[in-house]
Design brief:
This protein has 173 residues and is mainly alpha-helical. The chain is 58% helix and 0% strand. It has 7 helices and no strands. Helix 1 runs antiparallel to helix 4. The radius of gyration is 15 Å and the shape is globular.
């Protein structure tokens, strides 16, 4: 996977985490903006970052939870194209996004577990890299307690509301 493909994969993975609980909070937008600024090499302006976020919002508004489920399937199908360092970069940014709003939501835990499963990262490796991780994120596979779709994805991800587009340019005023 080339660097631009990885960058998009990372951004979309983090965006899904941000929206899986049905809310987009200002702290999460700030965290995503921070990520886009840090890794978004092709995003050179606030307008580019805002456009990228709003494209994702439009896509999730059209597809609802299917957007997230399809992304998990994409991660599963492409995990072998990622290095271990890239996988841990994804996990690191996921953890950062989960903590952004200062509360860990059940839907975020479920999503985190599905991403870890898709990336084929063991609990032991995660604990080795992130010894201070919230244990609910790596303990019993709660996702296995729920009915799964024919594709193997838990069907317990809630339906999502329509999200409003964001304006980052107001931060510059």
């Amino acid at each position: 996977m080339n660097s631009q493909e990885f960058e998009f994969l990372l951004i979309k993975t983090i965006f899904c985490c941000m929206t899986v609980d049905g809310e987009i909070e200002e702290r999460e937008i700030s965290k995503l903006k921070e990520l886009l600024t840090a890794v978004g090499k092709h995003l050179s302006t606030i307008a580019d970052i805002e456009e990228n976020i709003n494209k994702l919002i439009n896509d999730i508004n059209k597809e609802g939870k299917k957007f997230i489920l399809d992304h998990i399937l994409f991660l599963t199908a492409n995990e072998n194209k990622l290095s271990e360092d890239e996988k841990f970069t994804i996990i690191n940014h996921l953890l950062s996004m989960i903590k952004a709003d200062e509360e860990i939501n059940y839907q975020e835990i479920l999503y985190f577990k599905e991403v870890v499963k898709a990336l084929k990262i063991s609990k032991e490796k995660i604990l080795g890299r992130f010894p201070d991780i919230e244990l609910s994120l790596v303990e019993q596979d709660i996702a296995s307690l729920f009915p799964r779709s024919p594709l193997g994805i838990p069907i317990s991800i809630s339906d999502l509301p329509k999200f409003e587009l964001v304006s980052l340019r107001k931060d510059l005023m």
